[in-house]
Amino acid sequence: MAQDKPRGKKRPAQGQEPPAKKFAKGGGSDKPRSAPAKPAQPMSRKEQKEVSVAKKTKFRRNFATIQEAVQLWEKLRPKSTSQADKEQLVEQIVGMFRGKVLELANQHTASRVIQFCLKEGAPDARAAIAKEVRAHAFELARSKYGHYLVTKLINVAPKEDVPGEPCRGGVAAGTSLSARR
User: Fold this and answer.
1) What is the pTM of this model?
2) Counting beta carbons within 10 angstroms of the beta carbon of residue 142, is it exposed (0 to 12), middle (13 to 18) or buried (19 or more)?
3) Region labeled Disordered — which residues (predicted)?
């Protein structure tokens, strides 16, 4: 007759201490914890914002450039802005972003600014953005925010600049259903 053994954790026998734990709470340090240093006076909201902006400027690439572009974008967005002013503001933004479009297209705010420049800009501004994006469109199309830029670029570009054949019903012209599988 086989004895049935209880499964699970073993309990210590009567009068014995439980086994020691492997890790002590509190990080294993025997030193007493000191209270965190409190600032002499709490900072005002304006001071907190200045510190936050200073940190972001220091640690994020192109943060200052994006902030300047957003300020110009806010002037560009109202419908009351004349077309000549819009083209001038778009030229300023495109000039700031020149050479950095691929890098900036992967950031939320900068991607939106570039999309608006494509929508409202003159054909030469669109061409400047398209020239930078064209070689890397595939990588941008796969990125979180860049794919919105590629979509906008395709929508606003002249038909002769968009490569490929037109699609009909989701199937490229000249392909059969069996070729797609």
Assistant:
1) 0.63
2) exposed
3) 1-55
**Per-residue model confidence as pLDDT tens digits over 135-160:** 888 899 999 999 999 999 989 888 77
What lies within 8 Å, CB to CB, of 113 at 6+ separation is 66, 69, 70, 73, 93, 97
Among 101, 103, 132, CA closest to 114:
101
43: helix, coil or strand? coil
Please give the DSSP secondary-structure letter assigned to residue 78. Answer: S
Answer left, alpha or beta for residue 154, where phi above 0 means left and psi between -120 and 50 means alpha: alpha
Q: How far is CA 152 from the centre of its chain?
A: 17
Q: What is the pLDDT of residues 46-65, one digit of tens each?
A: 888 888 888 887 878 888 88
